[in-house]
Records
---
Amino acid sequence: MGNRSVVPYGPQHPVLPEPIHLDLVLEDEKVLAAIPSIGFIHRGLESLTSKKDFNEMVYVAERICGICSFMHGMGYCMAVEDIMNVEVPRRADYLRTIWAEMSRLHSHLLWLGLLADGFGFESLFMHSWRLREKILDMFEASTGGRVIFSVNTIGGVLKDMPADMLNDFVRQLNEMEKEIREMTDIFLTDYTVKSRLVDVGIITGEDAIRRGAVGPMMRASGINVDMRKNGYAAYNELDFEVITSNKCDSYARCEVRIGEIFQSIDIIRQCVAKIPDTEINTKVTGMPNGESFIRVEQPRGEAFYHVRANGTKFLDRFRVRTPTFANIPALTQTLQGCQYGDVPLLILTIDPCISCTER
Amino acid sequence: MATIHKSPWLLHYDGSSCNGCDIEVLACTTPVYDVERFGVINTGNPMHADIFLITGGINSQNEAVVKQIYEQMPQPKVVIAVGTCACTGGIFKECYNIKGGADTVIPVDIYVPGCAARPESIIDGVVKGVALFKEKAEALAASGRA
Amino acid sequence: MQELKKDLYLIDKAELLTVIMEKKNALWRLCQICCSYPKAENHFEVTYSFANGQDIANYRLIAEREEEVPSISRVYKSAIFYENEMHELWGLHVENIKQDFHDKLYRIDVETPFLEKEGE
């Protein structure tokens, strides 16, 4: 039997932009168990329902997380719209879809950069973040914000994108596609990158289900599940295939996310070609009464929103189950039996968003 | 010691922010904004760091962590609070688990407002921080304790 | 079992474990567990959500203030976090959680912040 020790990992760690703490039980260099402890960013924002009314909660929902900020706002609005039986104008649905896919693009590019940083490929990190800035410029041109836009409102969206702006975005994305392809090819074919990713952190499809994993984590284990196929917003009129991989390792998770980058570009193209010319929001009157369960596919996986209203302007309950929260049990599974040196990389492969997790 | 102010190192810690400011801090170090042209470099070790960028408010669990990181940093040190949450608590001020801005536990020198703080304003804050760091280093040298 | 609305069923405590086992054997994944304390009702509502592919099923259990709810963490290991969260934030008693954090999951200073606010 080797030498047993317990290594505290985090909360402040060079690889993690956000704090999470793990107690790693090691036998020599092998991880026997990982015990996560969370709560460093717990704010308790679900309790703000008693202090802010349901319209103001949109802004709170957007600040659950700065990376998928738009989708949190969208999920919350969809839940309240569902309770109040509001039919959102079609153009708003399309605009939401475009912004959501742009969020996915920037989030996946961000993740690729962090992954490269995680295994010490600094120039690749810089390149993916350079490309990501172009998406942020588009956000800024269309909404005025770089990470938090506040364009969602109950009943639609607050800002419109004129046709020439949309066409310009498509042109820019077409140009970027080549550059992104060039960069992602390095992730998929480079020998050193592959040696860090292939056969590391294997989780089988059945295990992923048992642990309740979501999103790319699930799809990289060969499970075909994507909430966009439920057809919320404009997805029911768009043509796309769920991207899966059967390799179950870190490489597969990288592959799935890279596939989704190009898929997002394609979805945006389809949206711009199909977007109808209607109003962008409807006037919503009255107070919500009832409850709703909404699931949205975020870059990190399925997010679950439960809103329960009681006919006053303050909601009874606003509950968010974010994708990273669901992926943590799967993470502890992949960490078991891995090498100590692979721990930072494995934490990165679930694309952790701790701010989401702890709310 | 005489030239250290030309290349102070940055340490970034996420208090209880929503992540928006954190990715903006990271964006500052990447090619488009490139804060490294002012001589600063991002480090992960508090004991190497001279400038502490903190985002987000303080809650009961990270209070001790922030204090510890601050104490581990060598003298002189500059603290920059990035984003509205780190300045005052921001939108989460009324949450039960938020004690307020970063200045509730450690002395803050420079406040960078914004939700999320824009890279331009973060760079502005860092440049001010570099100047303040020089001042503090000189004062420390003059006192003969450096 | 009573259907409250689409995909939402009301179950009682005795039925819970049967439902859970059924879901586990059919390879459904645990989507989330949500606890709430609606002001008008004056009792806890615990909602268990399961998903299989694109489908979803929610089961709601009603519990009184001091009533104990059985833990499902021995069937679904990922329930550990949700059950600890419910106990820490809401004060809901969950019997026999597989890995009990004893109110130290989030390590907050306030005791059961959600319940106190609701009880006002």
---
Amino acid sequence: MKIYPRQHHRVLQVITRLMVPFVLMFGLYVQFHGDYGPGGGFQAGVIFASAFILYGLIFGLHRTRKVLPPSTLRWLVSFGVLLYAGTGLLTMLLGGNLLDYDVLASNPLSGQHWGIFAVELGVGITVTSVMISLFYGFASKR
Amino acid sequence: MMDQLPALQVMLPMTMAPLIVLIRNPKWSWLLATLATGAACLVSCLLLMQVIDGSVIRYAIGGWEAPTGIEFYIDRANAGVALLVTGVSFVTLIYAYHSIQHGIDSSRHYLFYTGWLLCTTGLIGMVITGDAFNVFVFLEISSLSTYMLVAFGSDRRALVASFRYLVIGSIGASFILLGIGFLYAATGTLNMVDLAMRIPTTESPRAVLVAFSFLTVGVMIKAAVFPLHGWLLSAYHHAPIAVTAFLAGTATKVSLYILVRMFFSVFGEAYSFEQLFLNWVLLPAAIAGFLTMSLVAIYQTDLRRMLAYSSVAQIGYIIAGISLATQQGLTAAVVHMFNHGMVKAALFMAVGCILYRVGHTHIPSLQRLISRMPFTVTAFIIAGLGLIGVPLTVGFVSKFSLIQALMERGWWAAAVLILVSSVMATAYVGRVIYLLLFRESRSETAGMTGVNEAPLLMLAPLYALLALSVYFGVFGSQTLRLAAGAAQTLLGGYQ
């Protein structure tokens, strides 16, 4: 894949600069409004990652890598899984079954709320970082 | 805490896997991975003791009772398989510490152990879950990590082997997914107990038939049943030897368990064998498998490839036991799953010791290795005798019960063919043992100077596994009783 960090893509660069914050915002909306509307960690993760991939396509890989170094990504990939598994273990420690969110708060409803929140956040973080890692993997010429 | 054991068994390796990625130190990763699988092994021991009297543990994930939610369903039939998976994973992981030093850069060791733990997670999950779709999810976890582990092989051909396994394995996985989809369309449920209840009264028997066909072929690809075994040979040959030992002991056995669970518990013996005549498909495949693969194994010059062919042949025996669909036949199949899992893992571990010191596994150049590596060669001989089925070894226990079961059903020809295949096994194992003990010509022993015994950390797990297999060979009635219980549970269907 050829990446063009060239000046004569001015239109694309300006549009991208405008787009990226909105894409990120939409990703966060899908992530955190997933409790009430359509959405969730997986979709949000892909949308969130697409902002970084768009930035990488227009401004070049090395600038994206400055924003999100591969070492950070590797950390994030496993952190998301740990957040998911940790929530499961926490519910077991608090006396419920695996991923039984009822025990997480004083009343079951808010327990379910917090449980879903944590688990979906874990999914979102992992999906975002895996998508960007895949992009780095394919785009780098090593 | 005791009632949390089923979930703990899966969560221990699963939580440790991302932790290892964060730690990244080769030694610590090995230690943590070993501890996690060791703990999981302990948990499966405890679970087996709880269900050995025929009781059933049902664990509702998230507190949602089945069939609404996903459940872990543990009974006599799968607790033993879970113990086999965690036990072999634990033993081969201890062994892996030295054996992966060659060929894998130490900066990538943590990835290796992460893949290993995820593979273990997937295999345990496939065994203990009571939800058909969950089987697929865990199957994907274990398969994807297996592809990665195979690609770690020091040889460049490992990449090709891994890619080939990926393509064929993905076809198998898609077949399984399609089958599950059709089942869901026909019955409206994914819980296996619920499926077993609803399949006989379904309004769309054709969809069930399609589901059955897709599932059978898909799982048979994953289990490397004879005509669908293409991926296994190169994957076993080129993967790091510790991975081969791990997979040979667990991966195909887990798929065979899924096959048995599906035929007998979900679809029911009456549907699979009386209505569809499945034994007319399984038995010829099994016989063709163990005859041709044993024959081909005789002509191999590479030790690892020879054992890979032998693995496909042994899977043929298990399928022959399944195709009987009787209490005795299923007992023989289950007991052979355990015994062969142990023996083949031990054999590959012994070969790994040779590979570690000598650097290759070319059979003709291993003449009189016993003078250099006495313990390794002794281990290989003991395990090899178990593979042939010499009396007082585990191979004898399972082959004897299989032949008994075949004769009871009146399938004399099949019983005789098993004996023929055993003679061939004697030929291919005996040839290697002869070469390891005696020298044929002086010319080909060059390059053996400086070769000495494998390190203790490789020999100790190997001998632990051997001791276990000898114990179960001498006191064969114990495993047979356990397997008979499993067979009874499977044939009885879900309560």
---
Amino acid sequence: MALVVGIDVGGTFTDLIAVGEGETRLAKVPTTVENQAFGVLAAIEAAGIALADVTAIVHGTTATTNALLERKIAKVGLITTKGFRDVLELGRRTRPKPYGLIGHFEPLIPRELRLEADERVDADGEVVCPLDEAGVATAADTLIAAGCEAIVIHFLHSYRNPAHEARAAAIVRTRWPAGHVTAGHEILSEYREYERGVTAAVNAAIQPVLHRYIDRLRGELAARGFTRDLLVMQGNGGTVAAGIVTETAVNTVMSGPASGVMAASRVAEAAGFPNVITYDMGGTSSDVGLILGGLPSLSAELELEYAMPIHVPMVDVHTIGAGGGSIAFRNEAGLLQVGPESAGAAPGPIAYGRGGTRPTITDANLVLGRLNPTGLLAVGKPVPVEHVRGIIEAEVGKPLGLDVEAAAAAILRIANDRMAGAIRMVSLAKGHDPRDFALFAFGGAGPLHAVALARELGIPKVLIPARPGITNALGCIVADLRHDFVRTLNRPLPSLDEAEARGIMDAQVAEGRALIAREGVPIEGIRVVHRADMQFQGQSHMLSVDLADIALTREGLSEAFAAAYWRRFEVELAELRPVLVNLHTAVIGIRPPVALDRLIGEGDSIEGASTGRRAVWFDGGFVDTPVYAREKLPRGARFEGPAILEQLDATTVVEPGNQVEIDRFGNLIVTV
Amino acid sequence: MSNLDPVTLVVIKNGLQQVCNEMDLAFCRAAFSPVISEAMDRSDGIYHRDSGDLIAQGDLGLPIFVGTMQFSTQAVIARAKDIRPGDVFIVNDPYLGGTHLMDVRFVKPFFYQGKLFAWLANTGHWPDIGGMVPGGFSANATEVEQEGLRLPPVKLYKEGRLDEEILSIILSNIRIADQRIGDIKAQAAALSIGEKRLTALIDRYGPGTVDAAVAELRARASQQMRAKIATIPDGTWVGEAFVDSDGVVDEPLRIALSIEKRGEEMTFDLSGSSPPCQGPMNSVIATTRSSIYLAIKHIFPEVPINAGTFEPLHVIDPKGTFLYAEYPRPVSGCAAEVSQRIAEAVFAALTPALPDKLFAAPAGTSGNLALGGVDPARGRAYVMYVISGGGYGGSMAGDGISNGCSTIGISKTTPIEVMEQYYPVLFDEVSLNEGSGGAGKTRGGFGLNYAITLRRGEARASMVMDHGRFGPQGALGGGDGGLNRVHVTRDGVSYTPPHLSKDQDIRIKAGDRIRVSTPGGGGFGDPRLREAALVARDVARGYYTPAEAAARFGVVLTALGEVDQAATSAARDRLAAAGKPA
């Protein structure tokens, strides 16, 4: 019995999925906020798993993301180029919002722990001022004496010539063998001093946190007899062996949303949908991702919060401030507004009975019969539907001259309109038309809204996976090992040294292969993906160009860029010179495949899955609607909406006229 | 037929907003000029077919364009003849509802089923528009003709075809013309995207319903703004602000603002301000009005922007002052600098009225520095622009942020690592301007210092900045923020511009150095009320010296940097007796 176990820690629940031959096990236990390891162990226990049977555990943790957002980070010191210690505090001259001149910003490294050393390299990589090695040693001693837990070395233009930075890091490591030392170019060899510096500072700030956490978890697992591979999810949608994860701790940030998109890409591709928009709707916010040709789209420009850019490649997930807990109210202009304010998990929607008093999206779903009042997860004291109706009527209905159902329907329509608009902007910003995609909806609330969103966006097909509520855990077990590299060249194509570019790519591949060898995790093969960031000279935005079928020559790059530019902007600019800015390489160690067809049970017939009927509001009136138990619907079943499909952690709404099919994996495919 | 239920109204509102946001996005992503693509110095909107009034404006546009584009759209409507689908007018005339010449508008009639339904317009800041200095920010111009090419509304596109003759006139009169074709195509393409999306919206809801929604949304925005104004106590609120000089005559220019607030309306009277000036610090009326709208939007950010928002705000034409510039007064400083002083006067006037909403003055200068020359190593001419931020004012919410963007902008700094790739310069320093945050119960944020050394060849530097003579104002007893300073070192000899913050054609050569320090924000509230431990922390961080802590906050520290409680109370009493709010 060989099990692969995926465990994802979310804000409220820790989810587990274990897959072996012909067997799937699931568990959902409360997240243990203080030390996530306890929840992880509890999940293993709840699933009745004997660790001796497990070949690999793949773990998605929010430990690092939370540490950053809550600023429970390590004390970090900085050694930087003389004259530039304030770069990390001055930022890129921004304010939190376009309007309003009040805001707050605290750099990750306080000013008294930011020291300087004499050295300077110019934009061509030439040394203008030699490195003051004694100065570096003195600065390191000062920072260590001040109690720093990690030190960052960040020098200007180190992406072009890392010699000074590497030498300084070596000096510090020699003096402080047990310490955490991050040299900027080791994390990100890309230009832009603020972004590279903050990325390095983030890495340093969470390294000790992640180190302690993983150490403890490995210890606990070892004590229970687990001797096989422990892998950790990264924000790039790949995994990394626990033994080396701390070196690039920054890569674990935002791994939760990434694993959800990763699972979506595997499930959707197997189901025959290579191009997918993912929509993960939770209680306070929703995450939108794009999958093209079976591959999640990546970005290296995440801003985790105001003025905290993290520029390592990550699955490109955009967060929209709309979730089940978004509050509906009449604003000062007399217009109905939904969100961005949220009732969150506490007090939560009125229906949760935990003291919520303002109408939310979840409450509107309840009033309209879309949610089953007795089937809500995480409810405190049960609240009668009449109470919820009363508040919606008073707060939304009366002021707008609507009856209670019309008011609840208005809340949903405005919420859906806003979410659809945000999804459109996300896809357009990447140059795609949402109508060319299928919508993959998951998370607790995604399946409630998916069909309405797809209709609004003109998306023809909706896919609801077998287990919408544990998609992130599934992402853990389907993810491959992955290491990303980027190097800035910034050369106009006419003066590009083709051999140099090929040399960089070869070196990046070699580095990735070496890392995978160090990890010692079984793989079935290695896949390499190269991309280039390009722009026209004088431009500042870049386009990412796939180099899969491109000869790495001046002509090949030029043609590929012109084609990509046309696809994106429908503008042809033959008169201008293209520039090769960055070369990206992903080295992917392919892990053995996991069977996806046993994730949910099935019954014999559609009738057998029926659990009754209830009145559900669709487009102006209540419709008597059949309700089914999702896990009893047989594979291959087809029927027409309306319908409500219920399962433990999600409810799917199918509108009248929709065609529904259960595919061979147990996914719901809805034709809108 | 109109079918306007409350839900459809909101959905159309969001739909119109989305059309504008998509235009913003398309313009910014495809543009060449870093001023547009990085600094986001552009804006897109939809305007009424007859009145030219603003219907909706993109969320991502530059704040100074709040409301201004409706004035230039109105100027196009007044002059346009024989309008056809596919036409695009180009205009940058400051006196026809404009700002400065570098802000070039494209205005396009939008037809639905063959009938004019609305106008789409956008503005982009071009990196050069000709004139006596590269980049357009002349400090010494005395006529608009010296500031660059002035375009009345002319059709750059005729029924979808680019007019090559007009294009060639434009390209023959500006610097670095070869990249402008990319910006022109991007600017026009953004309007085409708006056209497609607006058509789809009207297809869905019908022209009658969309028209009705536009009228209703205008009324609602007005209602919302009135509700906000009602929270300000009735009365006359006065504020003032000073521009260092006009760049030609070395005398301060005064902005004198009196706001008459009654019920749900406000009237802004600037008539006591200085007369028109010789140099380029005159403001055209469109910019003067926009500056007031922008300041109000900073105070009430949640109010949407459409023509209704401005209805309860009455601005008396300040004829006879430098805030009502007429041809041929030079105006290059109006959008970037004077606008921010007008906003500062609005903030100063309203802070006592709404102390929990407002803040002490922000740094409030764009800090334009242009360096033009020829790089002998590359044999190429270049123009390098640096704009910079400064500290924001303290407020009840806390200390001001450091190195925030100008009041009228949302642009990010260009990284040093990018600047040094393109231009023959080396930055010696980018540091926090210590001591520049104005003292207060909550202090101002800090400006920055930067220094540039020219590595090769020769160059000319020009600058239009402000707050070199008067620091950003403190509020409710807080101290002023630190001053803007410029020092040029030529052959080892130091040179300070006579007008402090404005100068033109400073010749430098390899090895010479320019150092700029930008203003900090004003302090908010009495500095003696600032928690002493926070002052000690600020000293530990090097934000202030121990001497500054004592003189400006009345906080005395021990040799170990801890608060000396007894000495601190005595010092604070002495400050009180001296009646000196730092």
